[in-house]
Amino acid sequence: MSYGPNLADLFRHAATYVDKILKGAKPGDLPVEQPTKFELVINLKTAKAIGLTIPQSLLGRADEVMQ
Question: Which of 9, 16, 52, 64 makes a 20 to 30 Å CA pair with 32?
Fold first, then answer.
């Protein structure tokens, strides 16, 4: 199971920073931003291999369930 920032969203934000820098902004003047989109991924095969049972309520909240 993994809960972390959505990488595609982070790359989009990075592109925005690059655009601002290329247009003349100083990197030190740009604000530090926190991720805004997170995702929960559950690997059922690994959970079964280590003897874990994932509740259905948690599976329903997951962004991705790997079989």
Answer: 64
CA atoms within a 13 Å half-sphere pointing along the CA-CB vector of 60: 3
- pLDDT tens digits in sequence order for the chain, 67 residues long: 999 999 999 999 999 999 999 999 999 999 998 999 999 999 999 999 999 999 999 999 999 999 8
Phi and psi torsions of 32, nearest 5°: -85, 130
- What residues are paired with 65 via a beta bridge? 42
- The reply to whether the predicted model has a pTM over 0.90 is no
The structure tokens listed for 58 are 């948690």
d(C-alpha 44, C-alpha 24), whole Å: 48
